[in-house]
């Protein structure tokens, strides 16, 4: 379905070793390392054969793709191999991808959808537009008010994530607001707003509701992300 590359900030020897462990037949010679890059601090699609409009990036580091955020699907970092075995994946880890409990099954669904749309005669042949279209439907209709969220904890910022997901972020607290995002720490110093939200039956959620929705490309149940977390 896709032609795959490995692109790492590690050395070429490391990149080749990872390709061997993951399955060299998947990547053949499509392995890019730090040694191939002119700029050692960032990654670029200049080294990938193909037009930017047809390239999807899966990476757990948002910052290393400053010029290609529109191509990027942000991934959750996970350890694929255990410390005790070079070949054995971490099946006992609750975040293990091999158990189907991780992010990869969700992202595979998105990739299949984009692939189908890309080759549809009535759709755009630009994955950046398709990614934006799919992502922008996930929280469409939500109007979100944030209470003192530490934006530095999230990349991209949690407000940017919400907007990419199709939500409207507002600084005006009125009846149109559907969600109030607050943490346990900030909840203590913004009691009036929290009380207002409770009286008006607005949905109070922790910032992780947006973050996990962003990672999984699927709206998560709000009751799984209480502000007490």
TrEMBL record:
* Keywords of this entry: Hydrolase, Nucleus
Domain BRCT, residue spans: 134-227
Protein's name according to its UniProt entry:
protein-serine/threonine phosphatase
Q: Where in the cell is it found?
A: Nucleus
Q: Where is the FCP1 homology domain?
A: 1-99
User: Upper lineage ranks?
Assistant: Eukaryota, Viridiplantae, Streptophyta, Embryophyta, Tracheophyta
Gene Ontology CC entries for this record? nucleus
Q: Which InterPro entries match?
A: BRCT_dom (IPR001357), BRCT_dom_sf (IPR036420), Fcp1 (IPR039189), FCP1_dom (IPR004274), HAD-like_sf (IPR036412), HAD_sf (IPR023214)
Which SMART domains does this one have? CPDc (SM00577)
Major site of localization recorded for this protein: nucleus
The enzyme's E.C. designation:
3.1.3.16
Q: Is Acyltransferase among this UniProt entry's keywords?
A: no
Q: Which reaction does it catalyse?
A: O-phospho-L-seryl-[protein] + H2O = L-seryl-[protein] + phosphate; O-phospho-L-threonyl-[protein] + H2O = L-threonyl-[protein] + phosphate
- Which of the seven top EC classes does this enzyme belong to? hydrolase
Q: Where is the signal peptide?
A: none
């Amino acid at each position: 379905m896709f032609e795959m590359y490995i692109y790492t900030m590690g050395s070429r020897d490391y990149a080749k070793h990872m390709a061997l462990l993951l399955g060299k037949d998947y990547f053949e010679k499509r392995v890019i390392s730090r040694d191939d890059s002119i700029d050692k601090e960032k990654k670029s699609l200049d080294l990938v054969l193909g037009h930017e409009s047809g390239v999807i990036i899966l990476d757990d580091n948002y910052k290393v793709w400053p010029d290609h955020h529109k191509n990027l699907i942000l991934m959750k970092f996970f350890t694929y191999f255990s410390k005790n075995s070079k070949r054995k994946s971490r099946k006992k880890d609750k975040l293990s991808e091999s158990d189907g409990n991780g992010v990869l099954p969700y992202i595979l669904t998105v990739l299949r959808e984009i692939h189908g749309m890309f080759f549809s005669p009535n759709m755009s042949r630009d994955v950046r537009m398709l990614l934006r279209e799919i992502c922008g439907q996930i929280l469409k209709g939500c109007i979100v008010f944030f209470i003192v969220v530490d934006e530095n904890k999230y990349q991209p910022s949690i407000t940017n994530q919400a907007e990419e997901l199709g939500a409207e972020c507002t600084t005006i607290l009125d009846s149109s607001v559907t969600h109030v995002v607050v943490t346990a720490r900030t909840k203590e110093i913004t009691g009036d707003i929290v009380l207002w939200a409770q009286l008006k039956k607005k949905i109070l959620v922790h910032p992780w509701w947006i973050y996990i929705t962003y990672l999984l490309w699927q709206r998560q149940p709000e009751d799984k992300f209480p502000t007490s977390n």
